[in-house]
Fold each of these.
Amino acid sequence: MIEVLSVASEAYPLVKTGGLADVAGALPGAMAAHGVSMRTLIPGYPAVMREAGLARLVHEFADLFDGPARLLAGRMMGLDLIVLDAPHLYDRPGNIYLGPDGKDWPDNWKRYAALSWVAGQLALGLVEGYQPEVLHAHDWQAGLAPAYVKYGPSDRVKTVLTVHNLVFQGHFPAEIYGRLDLPPHAYYESVEYYGGVGFLKAGLATADAITTVSPTYAHEIRTPAFGAGLDGLLNVRANALHGITNGIDIEAWNPATDAALIEDYGASSVHKRAINKQAVRDRFGITGDNAMLFAVVSRLTSQKGVDMVAANVDWLVSLGATLVILGSGDAGLEASLEAAAARHPGRVGMIKAYDENLSHLIQGGADAILVPSRFEPCGLTQLYGLRYGCVPVVSRVGGLADTVIDANEAAVEAGVATGLQFSPVTSETLGEAIQRAVTLYGRAKVWRKMQRRGMKSNVSWDASAKKYAQLYASLLGQELDEQDGD
Ligand code: ADP
């Protein structure tokens, strides 16, 4: 078995604010079948400490970045964890990153430098009987961990940094550098970023391998349009950069057993979705003929391109289709979507909320799900759509480009299409894609085939887990020890 220490600021189901938590939470379970044993180092937030009652004390720090701290090891909610219990850093209520004023905690640099520094110590064999071979850091919060290994007394442990969204970079004033316990020359060599300290930048500069969550996003972030200031460095590191697409939890998202659906179904019984569709229509106040039903389930932000949906509502209704929107976020976007819904009572409905169960019902009932993101590192919504026979209509960027097969005539002919893609990403091209979807929906046999094909797509973690295992093995100069082989 390859021994991997994963370092993450979130892991589902213990603590989650975004997709990083899903990956950090799902990967360890998926890795075991591929000869990898993975433990996760995570901060001792209140939600984590509540589960840590039976954990074993494995180390104490008298002073870790201005306060005492302990390391606790144990199995919690299905994960092998090493918890960094440092109350002065993590024992705070509410959102893990934000203070009561809704702004980032001013000492976030210290909170995550501590996490990364401890990871570096574990790589050096801090805890007797535990020696990881690979340190796998996630996002800016763990970005300094590869730097601590590289500039520490031994860099024998190999390091991997995964970027879940390049936009979040952990950029802090240069003044903190002296507190980080890194040598002076590391500043200009690796850590300095636009005159300050860049946590993610430091990781990108020092990790042995960099991964991001889809192959297309791995290419895109090497361009100025998607590189968020880091494309130059990513080009220098191109040989170390890999794209590995995320999977989804196929147990929690299974239309054959989903308790959130009115009627469960499988690829051979997609007609049963009609019952769920009626339930979705009822929830959103959609009336009249049983028209094609588009859906949006999304954070309402500019990244997600929902302004382009708002711009297309009148057009979509003019094509005879209907639309439901579940989401919340940016106040301006909420207002424009609400106004669009108000213009088309009975044809367009909006619920301004985060509602996990309703999102399942929508995937199990709507005909198509719109995901017109401007950029999308991987995206989960379209994967749920595929699994539920809710045909994804997506912009051709990032993970959306990699996971949906566009229904051009050749793909329809060959029976391999699973959704619709549009490019470049504009309101006009989204409008064209909506029209194309309405036309295809009219070809009932073709549509059904596309649904079935999508439902058979492999969206599980297994394929991704194998790629991570291959990456670890190659860093260690090993052949992959495949237990299940293929
Ligand atoms: P991101 O992590 O950038 O928001 P993803 O597509 O990777 O985008 O993941 C979004 C997840 O959040 C999906 O599981 C989606 O179903 C869910 N989601 C987004 N908005 C809502 C909402 N209003 N209610 C329920 N689930 C939502």
Note: The longest helix spans residues 108-123.
Amino acid sequence: MKEINSKISGFYKLPIEERQKIIADQLRLNEDELDLLKKYGYFKPEQLDTMIENVIGSYQLPLGIACNFKINGNDYLIPMVIEEPSVVAAASNAARIARKHGGFQSDKVKSVMISQIQITNLEKMDEAEKKILSNKQKILEIANQQDPLLIKLGGGAIDIEIRKFNTNFGNMLIVHLLVDVLDAMGANVVNTMAEALTCYLEDLTNGKILLRIVSNLATHRLARSTATFDKELLGGDEVVDAILNAYEFARVDPYRAATHNKGIMNGIIALTLATGNDTRAIESGAHAYASLKGQYSPLTIYHKDENGNLVGEIELPLALGIIGGMTKIHPMAKLALKILNTRDTEELCQVTAALGLAQNLAALRALASEGIQKGHMALHSRNIAKLAGVPDHLVEEVANILVKDKKIRIDYAKEILEKLNDKNSP
Ligand code: NAD
């Protein structure tokens, strides 16, 4: 293998084809590999080139539909982009169980984002705080001059909060600018507003402003959803108790809570990605929220109702948009939003929260009854067969044997393939 040189001067200025050639030369890519880089799918290369830097191709993932969802009385077909087998099936199954008792009920979600403004070098923090609070209207006015369209549509900066810290770099006063961003995710909206306040706040406080940036811990944008899962459809009293027991494990142990929440994010991120939203913003917000009470905790809670059915509830910040960012630019995100058929960002958040709850219930049920591997590995066996080099027309046959023999391993898939080839050779 040729030595790699990662210092490629002016790489970003080159056309995509030139970049592909450089990478192909360095890595000695064959013609098929180079052709794969040139398969842009539904994108035009120019589109890709304006989305991020140093583009050499595009990357595809499966788009699936989670079925059976009834949320606030309406049915939804939920688009999910994810590479992990059994996630879509699990969500659909949990939604089927929830339907018997009316599906999911999701609360109203406000689209209020926080922008943080860090003020340092303050001699008297309390005095600065008083000045800021007594000039709140002026601060909101300056912020709202930045986005006339948002104001016209009924959004804009609505309030401020102050937080004070003593740090290794001295006192720090943080202004939270609260902005109703309506149907946008809102990071760019609030960042612009916060930056515009720099001079005014420095003059007002005699401090030095450093960071001005959105907080992904969007605690004014909490989404909540609840559902009753029928005990018979879940598998009976024993399964309900086992799920409650599993939930208790996550409640007391952050090692378990991390995986519990990962299961929730399987659903939430799949929809976030499908709709062209920022998955990192959602992830960081969710995990920060899970830690807010001092210990990393599950984002869902469960209890039994008077009839022995399982009631689940989810609560997490969801900074999602149906406008701005990639949502109206990415052709498949636009189509996914059309399939989802939501009227606004609030409805998108309500669906997303319900999907997270469904995903969590499905994982807990599998773990607490037959174990997660049974369903998961059956689907995973196809991937293992493909990894072992099994041709497409034999994948199903080999995967079935892997599952039947309880040996879902690449070496075993190769062994079966050899046997099948021997059997079929003349
Ligand atoms: P944006 O700036 O692309 O669009 C928002 C604009 O759309 C508003 O300023 C408004 O003028 C206009 N608009 C039109 N109709 C509207 C409506 N009905 N509701 C609301 N606004 C409407 O997008 P954004 O949402 O401000 O920013 C999202 C992008 O910011 C994402 O791509 C994200 O990845 C990125 N980002 C995230 C972070 C972070 O999460 N830490 C930081 C920086 C940037």
Note: The CA atoms of residues 158 and 218 lie 15 Å apart.
